[in-house]
Amino acid sequence: MFLFAAAALLVLFAMHRYFWARAVRALEFRRALRRGLGVLVALLGAGIVVVFAFARRTPADAGGSELAFVWIWFGFLFYALIALVLVQLAEWIALGKQEPDAGRRLFLRRAATGAGLAGAGAVAWSGERSASEELLRPEVPVRLEKLPRALAGLRIAQLTDMHVGPLLGEAYVRRVVAETLRTKPDLVVITGDLVDGSVAGLRRAIDPLFGLSARFGVYFVTGNHEYYSGAEEWIEYLSARGIRVLTNQRVSIGDAGASFDLVGIPDHSARGLGAPRAPDLERALSGRDPERESILLAHQPRQIQLARGHDLGLQLSGHTHGGQLWPFGALVLATQPYLTGLHRHAGRTQVFVSRGVGTWGPPMRVGNPAEIPDIILT
What domains lie within the chain, and their CATH numbers? Predict the structure, then answer.
């Protein structure tokens, strides 16, 4: 953790240092203005560190606007750096062809830099609008060979990566619940990263979640962020209020005439974080009838590797946010086999990865709107 924190701080410093060099120093402002802007950039960078360190200790109804401002700055900074690198490359190419006078060169640099920063601002603004306003309800038909015909058409609403905390509170949870219930799902599954904070801090914000209902119940498996927020306490709290937490367990969905197995395992990170209940698919499937259809709930797509040889029909996952901020999806794919959507993994086993309903870090989505998939089994 120390090495990770040191590397993160180094990267954060390098990002702000390059931004200052290209958006402040290189534009040759007057000394007083240059110093003032330099102090502002430094304070914004320090603000990110403070937010990251204390966000989970902040009650859901306190400090949201300040936290959002700092995280939106980080999102803007990311796209601003892309623009500034392109401006610098264009400048090098132009200087390789001809050498304009100093005054003209400074004018062109300021104009190009201003245009690039304006473009970054537009992307950040549209990303914030997308995160706060867009909530898609895509229909996802999934064919399962062993599904009883009597259950054809069964609808599963998948919620994942809501990240309820200082930035997403009670009002957003209420909206998500209302949208989930709108299509009258037969089953609701929550595939982790529900919260970013303690039960004590988020009790009020999470309360609307207990309005979820479905014919076959509401089920939950942990994500990695539950283990940063007191997983055992959250498991107890959710279970006491009617949400069934599957921890290396399976349950029958349906009735005596037609049913399938719903299997749930904890997140991959539980083992590394020393949690008392690490993922154990073998235990969850112990005594299973191989002729029955099975659907696995696992937070991270890479947990599909645990299913090898078990002939599962479908895994439902989240974690990736679909990349959240383009082009971060390319980095996500370095650690996960799938980014978003429905995929055939091996044999008849399929994996569906939802982009989720919340955000982590900058409250922005660029090219990856939030979604509550309506999974229709056939």
Answer: 2-133 (no CATH), 137-377 (3.60.21.10)
